[in-house]
Every structure is written in C-alpha cells, then in structure tokens.
C-alpha cells in the first residue's frame, strides 16, 4: 500500500466517510464499523508506522519512557514505539478501533484504552515523557482544535516531549474537511500551554504538505 495515500483517495470504498461530520465519537465509530474486517476500508490506515516517525525516533535516545499515543487508530505507530522499549499507552475514541488493535496485536505490550481526548482521565495529567499525535487534531472540526491542543499539551510531563505530525496548510489557504489541514499559526497555540517549540520540519509528500513539530515542557 502507498503509505502516502491521501485519505480522500480511498473515500469511495467506505460510505461512512461521506457522512456529515456530527461528532468525533459517532463519525469515527461509523467509519471503523463500516470497514468490516478489511483494513483497506479505513482511509488513513497504512498498516505501517507513519513515514515521518521513524526518522525522528532514530535521532532520539529514549528507553522505558512513559509514552502516550493520541487517537491511535489501528495501532501501527503505538506498536512501533513499544518495539523501541517505550512504555506505551494508546487511546482512541472509537471502541471498534481499540478492539481492532487488540485483535491485530494480541501479544502487544501497548496498553490500549478507549478514551475521549476531551475527557481524559486525571491520571494522564502531565504524566507522559513522550506524547505523540499523528493526524488526530486535523481529523476533528476547526472549532474544536484549540481544545484538542490544550488537552494534548496537558498530558506532557515536566521535561517531556510532544511530537505532532499533521497535514499542513498556509494560513491563508482554506481547508475543507475532514481532514481540516492545520496552519502553523494554529499549532503555535501549543506555546500557550507551557510548551516550547524545539524542532520543525515541513515535507511535501504526494502533493500534500506535512508538518512535524517537536515541543518540550520545561
Ligand atoms: C485520521 S485518524 C488517525 C489515526 C492514527 N493516528 C494514524 O495516524 O493512523 C484520527 C483518529 O483519531 C481518533 N479520534 C478522533 N477524535 C478523537 C477524540 N476526541 N478522542 C480520541 N480519539 C479521537 C479517531 O477515532 C481516529 O482513529
């Protein structure tokens, strides 16, 4: 499978993707449920880790760190991080997605949980040395982005790292989702939550701009 396939390229295979976006809980559960048992019917599922994650991780010396994967989908990134000896918790709002992760990786070391980013357990508060999100913020409507950014930032422990990978746009480019591509100016809201930007990359892959941004909490 082409790891750079745009989600929209595979919309036709899953009619639930064309439903109006009502809420993250119902929209994503419908997409995963309508996919049946065929992973190819989940538009964003790559069956391998995010292509930008491994090069970033290879420059890091991280072992046994408490790691949180936000909106983990079908678990490929969480599994890759666990194989690198990180202690991984991964959550998604979709019960079907989490059940699918457990089915795909029955011997997994990852602690998979059904959870809503907007109602996270108090135990997640500043509890993770590494927080990783790929593609979740952009998958929910723009009026929810500020709250999503605040909730993700809240999970980063003192001295911890946040890694965001998303589809990017210029601030004046319109976005019509899902997914709703993110402008760098939106991502700057992380700085309002005690985080500092330490690294920024921009890539063009298959005609789609992607941002990788690393933040740290002092
Ligand atoms: C575009 S998919 C990306 C999945 C995965 N991160 C990846 O890169 O393949 C967005 C994921 O975020 C999850 N999600 C959306 N809103 C959420 C929320 N409020 N809380 C937790 N997960 C959420 C969806 O169920 C979906 O699995």
UniProtKB/TrEMBL annotation:
Q: Which keywords appear in this protein's UniProt record, sorted alphabetically?
A: Methyltransferase, S-adenosyl-L-methionine, Transferase
Name of the protein this chain belongs to: Methyltransferase domain-containing protein
Q: Which PANTHER family match?
A: METHYLTRANSFERASE, UBIQUINONE BIOSYNTHESIS O-METHYLTRANSFERASE, MITOCHONDRIAL
Alphabetical list of Pfam families matching this protein: TPMT
Q: Which Gene3D superfamilies match?
A: Vaccinia Virus protein VP39
Superkingdom of the organism of origin: Bacteria
InterPro entries linked to this entry: SAM-dependent_MTases_sf, TPMT
Name the CDD domains for this protein.
AdoMet_MTases
